[in-house]
Amino acid sequence: MKKLVLGLALSLAFAMPAFAGDPVEGIWQTTPDDNGNFGHIEVKPCGERICGTLIRAFGPDGKPMKSDNVGKRIIWDMVPLGGGRYGKGKIWSPDRDKTYSSKMELVGDKLHVKGCILVICRDGGTWTRVK
Fold first, then answer.
1. Which of 103, 87, 83 lies closest to 23, judged by CA?
2. CA–CA distance from 10 to each of 5, 18, 21, 131 (Å)?
């Protein structure tokens, strides 16, 4: 009986990280794009990877605006690399309609985003946690 209880306790201890949410999960406000528009991206797991969907769009004046991009996936296949770093994923930039191989780094409530196409890279800026 002791072995069974000990085995269950150890199983739970090792399984806890699987139940815990990734620190990058939440809603993030992007930096303004080339047109001055920005959005709120909901970041959450998609299987064992991290994905993000545009859930709200805002104009340069900060007021909500209609956008055909709301509901579209902006981030996909991002892999947690440890230490607040994520990589091996893709980020779609609606203002340029380009998809970049991307990296992200989480530092507190700031998410630094960068994407590259071949050797040409674009700094996606620093996103701020909304919630």
1. 83
2. 9, 14, 20, 33
**What digits encode the pLDDT tens for the residues 31-56?**
999 899 999 999 999 999 999 999 99
Cβ-proximal residues to 28 (8 Å cutoff; 6+ apart), any chain: 40, 41, 43, 52, 111, 127, 128, 129, 130
| pLDDT tens digits, 71-100 | 999 999 999 999 999 999 999 999 899 999
70, two tokens: 């709301």
Q: Domains in the chain, start-ordered, CATH in brackets?
A: 22-129 (2.40.128.520)
Nearest-angstrom CA–CA distance, 39 and 20? 26
The β-bridge relationship of strands 26-29 and 120-129 is antiparallel
Predicted local confidence at residue 1, as pLDDT: 45
Token duo for residue 67: 């956008």
Residue at token pair 């579209």: 72
